[in-house]
Each structure stands twice: as structure tokens, then as C-alpha cells.
Amino acid sequence: MESMAVAGHSIHTCFHIKAKNPRVNLEKQVFGVPVLHHGVSCIGKKLKGKVGAGVQAVQVGLEESERVRNLKSLERTLELDAVSERELREKGFLGLRKTKLVCTIGPACSSLEDLEKLVLGGMNVARLNMCHNTREWHRDVIRKIKKLNEEKGFSVSVMIDTEGSQIHVVDHGAPSSLKVQEDSIWLFTNEKFDGSVPFTVQANYEGFSEGIKVGDELVIDGGMARFEVIEKLGSDLRCKCTDPGLFLPRAKFSFWRDGKLVERNYELPTLSTKDWSDIEFGISEGVNFIAMSFVNDAESVRQLKNYLSTKSAASVRVLAKIESLESLQKLEEIIEASDGIMVARVDLGVEIPLEQIPTVQEEITKVCRQLNKPVIVASQFLESMIEYPTPTRAEVADISEAVRQYADALMLAGESAIGLFGQKALSVLQMTSSRLESWSREENRQGSLLPRQLGVSLPDRIAEQICNSAVELANNLAVDAIFVYTKHGHMASLLSRNRPNPPIFAFTNDESTRMSLNLQWGVIPLLVDLSDDMESNISSTIHLIKSKGLVKEGDSVLVVSDVTPSRATPMAFQSIQVKTIA
């Protein structure tokens, strides 16, 4: 059915396709685009020629007075992140960076001024590692970030990272990293002491040396430094440094024998008593993400998500950190249970050979895309910039590879938390990811993904096919942007999964959805009051974006909407529309 739908600001041509028999031919090609027939409409730019059989004309429109009322009600509430708005004005739609950036907040960047500089530099999510600092310090940082969001118009999400059982952690007690010299002798002990004692390291777990023999190798942070066990003194170990390097506070360690990891099953819970206390703290402070350390199975993720739902905190997203052999062996079930994944490469490098890290990283990223879960690649992107103002060329290549793999987000850890050049490190991350995205688009190297059907119910399968088709259409027509209207972010994530060329502007009336979308590749979330009438929402938001000067005459926008029944649209349907700004 062909009609001219006239809004207050534009004219577009609509092609509503409705099957005579909705139970057959679910993926029929219309104008070269697969569409679904359960009341789904596929709306494209003006096409010449006749429309196929079974197509009827309908008139789409709203009374002008009602549209004006809706415009006035929306005008006060459209909230676009100030940094994204600035970037859009400076670079245009295709210049917007799509890879999200996560920064770990630590002593080097916890002041209000430093946090603001990180946000202006491109930080989308602020990560707080609950291993470090006091509860009061974390509360202060969270409230500073929320203050910046409120007063400066930013939209930065907050993530807390649980400590975990910490059976693999040792601490030398010094506030910053130490340089370990070759042949120096160190004592590793489970005795507690305050501050730092020369050449003495405190283990977090009493049984850390059980089953360890003289001659075994003790590896710090996957190879930052190495020691040989030369003597056992009860439960303590005397060790000689065989490979000098940097010894960070609260470092991870592992034991190796004859070139193989010494595996030990401690049978400790994924979440410790302290973790549950930190989770309660995070809920009370309104954090957006909780990253679980040392996840070895899906059950622990489900347990936390169920707990959050009982606390009316279901909007808090749960990320599982992949950092052990066990988590790799149960990868798909952990991804399916979680709301997202963090690839903790340092800890993975402790348990698997270093040369396997690149392929494992790529496989995790691919599976996360297939299962429609955001993935953060973390650890040691710019490790040298903890001490030096410029990165190594290999570090830049490492960033580029993660961007080429289409990871949703990249994360700085020590570089921002304790580094001397945290803001410069973020700038390198931002510039490198933007350049690689631009190159991939220019060379037409979009990451191909064999879609895995996720939906079970018919509505879910329809939404999935609509989003797959919308991205193909957006790329083929070279539209400037994709607009999607979403309550819980599902349609936005399905679009993001396909990694389209144009950016995705996700309009939602739910604050928690807006903050969770900060981790989705290519998604710019906007908070807006949405009415029951989707056509009115579309017209109003385009008008408001245009009034801000963010779109210009001739720009084309592909709109994906999930229309619920209302007075103006009594039939529920989903649609793809292409609108040209007039």
C-alpha cells in the first residue's frame, strides 16, 4: 500500500507490506530486502514503478494540533550527551566514534577536574575496582561522576568490579609499582602486615603455597616479573627473581611447573562476603554495571541477577569477566547468562599460553556478537603509558586489532588509574579507534557476521529480522543515521550487533536503558519522553534534532520503530522508514 505521509517538516514515501496469509513465506524479498509479514512495514525512499500484488494504499497522518502538542511536550525533555553532541557538530554523523571507552578510576584521576577531562576525552563508562581504596573513596567518585552528569550534561555510566575470592593476589604494600631486580630474594608470606616491608610480599590466601615445590616458577601478572621458588618455610616461600620487571600493587600470580600451569581447585564461591557487601553498596549508589571477577560458570551469574531482581535493581547490568580456563570451557553458557562480557587479558595470560590470547580474544568477541551481548576488551592496551607519554607502536597495533574485531568497548586499567599520562592514554585510545573505524568504512571492511537466530517467539524473531534488514538497507542506501525507539534497549542492541556504517541514535524514556546503552557499539542513547503514538514520536524527535542544528537539509535518516497500538495506530506493527530532512 503506497501513500504520501505528510508531517510538519518532511515528506516521505511509505510502502506498507501486509501478507494475505501471514503464516507463510516469512522471509519474502521485497525490493531486494527481506521483510516479515505479520503487520510489518518496510518503508523506503521514493521508488518508481508498480508495487506488487497484495499491496493497498492507506493514508498515514496526524492532526496538526495534536502534533504541535506532542512537540511542546517533548521539547523540554530531549537529553543528548554533551560530548556526543559536540563531536557530532565537529565531525558529522560518520565522524562519530563507535567503539566505547572504559576508564578505571584511581588516585591519578579521581579529582572532579580530572574526571571531567576524561569525560571530555571520550570516557563512556567509569570503572571502579573494589580491590582498591575505601568505601568512602568509591562513594565520593561515584557522586562526582553523577554531579558532572547533572551539571555538565554528560551521560557517563558507572561500573563496579568485584574483588572476587582473591586467592591469586599478592601485595607488596607499596602505594605504586616496584621494579624488581634480577637475582633479588623475596619472601612471599600469608602473614598480615601494615604498609610495606622490604622484599616481602603478602599473599591474600592462607593456603596459597599448598602443593608448591622448590623449583616451581612464580609468575606475576602473566609475566610482568618471574621468580623461582628456592625454599619453603612452613607456608611461606623464599623466591629468587629470574626475570626482572614491574611489580604492581595487588598483583595476580600463578605457579608453573615444567612449562605447565599448576592447577589447584580451591572450591571457593565466586562472590565473597566482601563482594556481596560491595554489591549492596553499588545498588545503594545507583551504579549501572557490576563486573563479576573469576566467573567459572553461568550459575553464579544467574544467582547475582536473581538477587538484583529481588532488590528492585534489575536494571543493573551484570558483566562476567572471562579470566580463567574454566570460564573459557563454559564460555557460551556464561555469555548467555550475563548482560555482557569483559575479556580480562592479563588474568587469561596467567592461565593460558600468551600466544593463544589473540585468537581467544577474537573468538570471545565473535561469540558475544552472535549472542548479542556487549564485549569489553581489557588490560594492557597502553601499559607503557603508565610511565611514558607516548605508546609503543605495538600497543597501537593492539588497539587497532581489537577495533578491527568490532569489540564494543576498550578499557584502560592502570593507565588511567595510577598512570602518569592517563588523559594522553585515553586520547591515543580515542584517536586510534576513530581512525581504524574510518579506514574500515572507507575500505568497505565491515565485519561479516553469520547471524545466529536468537529469538524463540515470533515477535522476537520479527524484531531480529527487522534489525538485520534495517542495517543492510542503511548501508546500501548510505543513510546518515539510524534512529530507533526502544524501552529496554533490545532493538538498539540488535542493530548494533550488525555493526552498521551510520551511527545509531537510540531514543528511550528509561534512564537505566540509556545508561546501559553506553556499552553498545555505535549507539548514541538519548533520553526523551515518548508518547503512545510512534509517528508523533518520530516527527517530534526529528524536529528537535533539527532544531538543535544537528541535522541539515538533505540528510537521510533510517527509522526503526516498534509501534504499539494507540488511537492513531490501532494495529501493532514494526517498521523501517527512510526520511529525508526537508
UniProtKB/TrEMBL annotation:
<keyword id="KW-0324">Glycolysis</keyword>
<dbReference type="InterPro" id="IPR015806">
    <property type="entry name" value="Pyrv_Knase_insert_dom_sf"/>
</dbReference>
<protein>
    <recommendedName>
        <fullName>Pyruvate kinase</fullName>
        <ecNumber>2.7.1.40</ecNumber>
    </recommendedName>
</protein>
<dbReference type="Pfam" id="PF00224">
    <property type="entry name" value="PK"/>
</dbReference>
<dbReference type="InterPro" id="IPR036918">
    <property type="entry name" value="Pyrv_Knase_C_sf"/>
</dbReference>
<dbReference type="InterPro" id="IPR015793">
    <property type="entry name" value="Pyrv_Knase_brl"/>
</dbReference>
<dbReference type="InterPro" id="IPR015813">
    <property type="entry name" value="Pyrv/PenolPyrv_kinase-like_dom"/>
</dbReference>
<dbReference type="InterPro" id="IPR018209">
    <property type="entry name" value="Pyrv_Knase_AS"/>
</dbReference>
<keyword id="KW-0808">Transferase</keyword>
<keyword id="KW-0670">Pyruvate</keyword>
<keyword id="KW-0460">Magnesium</keyword>
<dbReference type="Pfam" id="PF02887">
    <property type="entry name" value="PK_C"/>
</dbReference>
<keyword id="KW-0547">Nucleotide-binding</keyword>
<keyword id="KW-0067">ATP-binding</keyword>
<dbReference type="InterPro" id="IPR040442">
    <property type="entry name" value="Pyrv_kinase-like_dom_sf"/>
</dbReference>
<dbReference type="InterPro" id="IPR015795">
    <property type="entry name" value="Pyrv_Knase_C"/>
</dbReference>
<comment type="pathway">
    <text>Carbohydrate degradation; glycolysis; pyruvate from D-glyceraldehyde 3-phosphate: step 5/5.</text>
</comment>
<feature type="domain" description="Pyruvate kinase barrel">
    <location>
        <begin position="97"/>
        <end position="425"/>
    </location>
</feature>
<dbReference type="InterPro" id="IPR011037">
    <property type="entry name" value="Pyrv_Knase-like_insert_dom_sf"/>
</dbReference>
<keyword id="KW-0479">Metal-binding</keyword>
<feature type="domain" description="Pyruvate kinase C-terminal">
    <location>
        <begin position="464"/>
        <end position="564"/>
    </location>
</feature>
<comment type="similarity">
    <text>Belongs to the pyruvate kinase family.</text>
</comment>
<dbReference type="InterPro" id="IPR001697">
    <property type="entry name" value="Pyr_Knase"/>
</dbReference>
<keyword id="KW-0418">Kinase</keyword>
